[in-house]
Amino acid sequence: AEYMGEIIISDMAVDHQKIYRIYIVLLLLFSFGLCFCSFVTTRQCYLSPCYQGNGTDNLWAIDSGISFQLVCMCMASFAQVFFAYWVLFKTNVGAMNRGILIGVTVTLSLFLLLQSVYWGQEAILVDALQGHQNGTIYEDSIDCNSQTKDDCNKLDPIKKCIWVDEYSQCQKVMKIDDTAKSKFEVVTVFSIFVSIVQASFSFILFNWMDDSLESFPIRSNPNQRQSQLQSQQNYSSPTSSSSINNPQDDAEMSSYQTENARL
Length: 263
Known about the structure:
4-stranded antiparallel β-sheet, rod-shaped
């Protein structure tokens, strides 16, 4: 029988492949949604319009460091899907490849869980700010530098300047951005989903490691496979030189056994 280039697949391996493909599709969908949400959440301000000023703008918004961390984690989760597909279906299934895949999957699952906790806290923070002064924040902005109420009311409405009787000042009024809470909640939900799927995926990868190494499809090099078959045939061939009895060697062995018997 010809075994060159043949894929050896057992029934158990076929069932495992179907389940692996389901997990990969789920991870692909959830990771894509998480990446999309991360792109629209970066540098999200808590207020509308955004708070201005060096330093204070980061206090009232998602800063660049957290935004970069979010995007990198989501892109890593998306790239891990293609890495899993490559390991499981495009390479030889070995203990090292499977171990690396399990390690990466477990690590991503843990980091995504921590990410969901952080962004859940951000959603809670925005919800709490909405209850502070009915979600209204006043800024002592340079755009609203009028000294009287009449001059303040004459300013461009785009600047959103109003006269605050409580402070007797013309200040910039800002409202809590309702879209901020929704974006943070969506990131939290997708992070939880991806984390759960990654954890269960790593669990089955670990439990099925021995079965996969024995029965998963093995893609071998045709030349290497042919040499292995030739070696096996030479070893088991009854006409091989090692299996032919040498009459001279038999005579010497019989003489040696006779001498030992006499002694």
